[in-house]
Specification:
Blueprint lengths: L2 E5 L13 H4 L4 H11 L2 H8 L1 E6 L2 E6 L4 H18 L1 H10 L2 E5 L4 E6 L4 E5 H5 L5 H19 L6 H21 L4 H11 L3 H5 L7 H12 L5
Parallel strand pairs: 1-5, 3-4, 4-6
Antiparallel strand pairs: 2-3, 5-6
The protein binds zinc ion.
Length: 226
C-alpha cells in the first residue's frame, strides 16, 4: 500500500503533542510562519534553482532536469487542468494553499506536503507510472492541498490527530471524485484508504531528521538512473 503523508520537517515532539487533542488542535498559524522561515534548507533552494519548471496560473510546477522532465511536467499540468475544469472552486483554493508542485523522488509515498516550502511533493515515479491516470494524480494533489489548508488553519499533524487529518484529506478526494466524469478509480482508491485501520495512519510518523537528507540524495541521484 502506497500512502500519502505530510512532511513537517520537525524534530520529534517533546511530548506535549501526545498528551491530548486539546494541545494539538488549534495550533496558531504563527508556528507555521516560524517553521517556514527556519526550515527551507539551502539544499532544497539549490535543487529548486537547478530544476526546470512551468507555471500554471500562480502555481509553479517543478521537476529536476532529465530526459523525462517534459513528460513529468505535462502529466501534472494535465492533472491540474482536470481540477480546474471540473472543480474550479477547489482549483482556486489550491492556488491559495500551495506555492508549487515539485516532482521528485519521494521514498515510500505517492506524495507529501512540505510545510516549509508550501509545496506538494509528488513522487516522480508515481507521476510517470502508466497506472497513474490524470484523475489519480489530480486527486493526490487535492489530498496534499487539503493538508496544506489544514496546516494553515493551525491544525497540526501530531499522532493524536493524524488519523482524523488523513480522513479529512481522503474525504476531499472522494468529493473531488464525485465531480469527475471518470472518477471511479479515484473513488475506489479513496475508499480503500478509508477502510484501513485507524491505527495504521495514526502510528505513522512524519518524515524527520536524517531521512530528509536521504530523500534529497535520492532527488540528486535517481534521475541519472532513469
Ligand atoms: Zn495525507
Amino acid at each position: 500500500m502506497v500512502y500519502v503523508d505530510i512532511d513537517v520537517s520537525l524534530p520529534d515532539t517533546n511530548g506535549s503533542d501526545t498528551n491530548g487533542s486539546d494541545q494539538t488542535l488549534g495550533r496558531r498559524v504563527s508556528r507555521n510562519r516560524k517553521l517556514r522561515k527556519r526550515r527551507v534548507s539551502l539544499l532544497d533552494r539549490l535543487l529548486l534553482l537547478f530544476s526546470t519548471s512551468r507555471r500554471v496560473d500562480k502555481l509553479w510546477i517543478v521537476t529536476e532536469v532529465s530526459g523525462k522532465s517534459g513528460l513529468v511536467l505535462s502529466r501534472v499540468i494535465d492533472a491540474l487542468c482536470l481540477i480546474k475544469t471540473h472543480d474550479p472552486h477547489r482549483f482556486n483554493r489550491i492556488l491559495r494553499d500551495l506555492d508549487r508542485i515539485w516532482e521528485l523522488v519521494v521514498p515510500g509515498a505517492d506524495a507529501r506536503y512540505n510545510v516549509a516550502l508550501r509545496t506538494c511533493e509528488c513522487n516522480r515515479r508515481f507521476v510517470l507510472d502508466d497506472a497513474s491516470s490524470p484523475e489519480l494524480i489530480a486527486a493526490t494533489i487535492v489530498h496534499e492541498a487539503t493538508h496544506a489548508r489544514l496546516w494553515h488553519c493551525g491544525i497540526g499533524y501530531e499522532e493524536a490527530v493524524r488519523a482524523r487529518v488523513e480522513k479529512v484529506c481522503i474525504r476531499r478526494e472522494l468529493a473531488f471524485a464525485a465531480k469527475l466524469p471518470c472518477g471511479q478509480a479515484v473513488r475506489a482508491r479513496a475508499e480503500q484508504k478509508l477502510a484501513l485501520p485507524t491505527n495504521f495512519v495514526a502510528t505513522r510518523r512524519p518524515r524527520v531528521g536524517t531521512s530528509v537528507i536521504g530523500s534529497r540524495l535520492c532527488v540528486i541521484l535517481v534521475p541519472w538512473r532513469g
